[in-house]
Amino acid sequence: CDANFILVKVPELLTMWFEESEANVRDVFDKARQAAPCVLFFDGLDSIAKSRGGSARDGGDAADRIYN
To answer: Keywords assigned by UniProt (predicted)?
Structure first.
């Protein structure tokens, strides 16, 4: 496969300022578009993601906006 690989460490994306976290996520996808075709691997996503059928652990609506 000739795709680029981008490792994203999810805890490094999140900051205490929501707007900054959103900007970090946007930057990841901007870089992915520039490196297309590529595979994004989100390491640590399980630490903030909802479990199937569950609710967000601590992030609530803010976390929903980041990963939705």
So the answer is: ATP-binding, Nucleotide-binding
